[in-house]
Every structure is written in structure tokens, then in C-alpha cells.
Amino acid sequence: MAFPQDRPRRLRRTEAVRRMVRETRLSVSDLIAPLFVVHGRDRREPIASMPGQFRWSVDTLIKEATELKLMGIPAVLLFGIPDRKDERGTAATDPNGIVPQAVRALKDQVPDLLVITDICIDEYTSHGHCGIVRDGRIVNDETLECLRAMALSHARAGADVVAPSDMMDGRVGAIRAELDAQGFSELPILSYAAKFASCFYAPFRDAADSSPRFGDRLSYQMDPANSREALREVDLDLEEGADLVMVKPALPFLDVIAAVRARVTVPVAAYQVSGEYSMIKAAAANGWLDEPRAIMESLLSIKRAGADLILTYFAKDAARQLNR
Ligand code: PBG
Which residues are marked as active site? Predict the structure, then answer.
């Protein structure tokens, strides 16, 4: 059959019919809100490169998290910004560090909110790299020891899920072994399995003051040209014990999200990163894009590509629209 019998526009005539045939739906339950936490009290510092995002101290974080929970957002992802950085990122493994403090407070005061913690030392190292540096190189196996200790300190504080984002080889297996040995065999690992070396992390690095002081991240994060390699990373992480896998960034890598979705049976997450957020914010601030619609269309495209979960700085804005 073809035109004039075939008329796809019949199913677009009214909102009622469009709603009936809609293939993809976004839900508040799909969203995870990333949050930055700093030391101190009563702090809510605006992040210049990410308008509408803040660095929270633990007390203000609790208020924000309570609001997110009331809106139906099931989970948050925590990033810690320590008050001291050093070569080895020692503050990352401190059992009383900023993230363990925040996790304890959240689990105590907003118990039903799922707390996911980012496992990576770049916010804690003076050089800004995601691993231990020796002779200008990022050394893999030594970094695994830091990651194990970091994950354990978050687990002991009560984190619900740990999410390694460093891209060292073998880190999922190392963290799984550590958690199992220490009595946390039921704690899930959300692996940033396919994390690309992307320019879209720039606003985050400003927020966390974690830009590499020398070189770049090309020796550990993936080449944006590679999708087969993304599947290899996903396979390896699942073999090592990942419970959920992530693709990051989201919008420039929708094909990778779709390929990962087609390959695995575990839940797939996608991270709409800081640059994806800030570019929509900047265009909207100039009157070039309708912000609420740009938010929903970008999130919907990520869901349509196959993501079950979306980490997004727009979680609150999207929830507000979805709850209307
Ligand atoms: C590493 C980490 C980064 C992001 C999440 N985890 C920064 C990086 O790899 O440079 C970026 C998130 C974003 O851009 O929103 N700890």
C-alpha cells in the first residue's frame, strides 16, 4: 500500500491519538541527579559554567536531596570536592572524607533515596588525573588499590551503589573483590563502562576543579571514534562483575547506547554530562532554544536510544515537567 491509501498523518492528528501511539515515555523513575558536595556549612555555591547547579555542603545537600526525593527522583550520584588535594588523592580514601560524611547524613535523613557514589580520584589529586602518576604516566595497577579503598570507604558509610568512572583496566574486578571480601557482596556496581575522552566534560572540571594539570585523558578514556571498543569495555566490565553499565556522554554517543542496549541484558545507564547541560542552558539564556522542550527532547532521545536510566543535571527540571 502506498499514498493515497497510506497516510501516516492520520496518527498525528490530535494529542489523544499521538499519545496513544507514542513509542517512548520518559518517567521520573528513570532519572538520577548528580550532586557536588563540599566541606563546610550552609554553602550553596553556584557553579559558573553550569548555571542552576551548585556545590552543596552536607546540610544544604540534605535539603536539596529531600526535595528531589519528594519529586519522585529515585537516586542521586555524589561527587566529592575535598579541601585538600595531593599527588595520590589520599582524601579520596578517607573514611571521614566528604563523600562518606554526605552518604551517612543522606542515609540517616533521606533514607529512601538511593545514594550512588562516583569512584575516581581525579577530584582529589593535585595533578587532576584519574590515576597515580609516575614519570608523567598514569599507572594502572597501583591506581586499583586507591579505587578499592575508596569504594570500601563509601560502602562502609552506607552507599547503595558504587560507580567507578576512572577507566583503569580491571577496576570493576578489583572493587568487586574488595567489597566481597569485606562483607559487601550485595552492593551493586554501576560501571562507567564506555566512557569517552570528551570535550563535553569541561564544565564539570570547572565545577570540581579537576582539569588535568598536564597532558590529557586519552591514555585511559576512550577514543570517541570507537564503538566496537565500547562493546569490548562493556563485555569486560560485565565479566568482572558490573551489575549495571553506563555510556558517557549521552547525546554524541546515542549509537553506542543503542549498540550496548542490543548486546546486554543488564540495565543500561547513560550520562547526559555537564557540557550537554551547559550548551542547552547557554542557548536558552540567549533565547535561541526553548529550554523546557530542549530538556525533554534530549532526554527522550537518550531513552529512545535504549537507556533505562539517565544521569542528568536536568533531573529536577525534567521531574517538574513530568509531574505536571
Ligand atoms: C571523573 C568524572 C568526570 C565526570 C564524571 N566523573 C570528569 C572527567 O572524566 O573528566 C564528568 C561528568 C560531567 O561532565 O558531567 N571523576
Answer: 195, 248
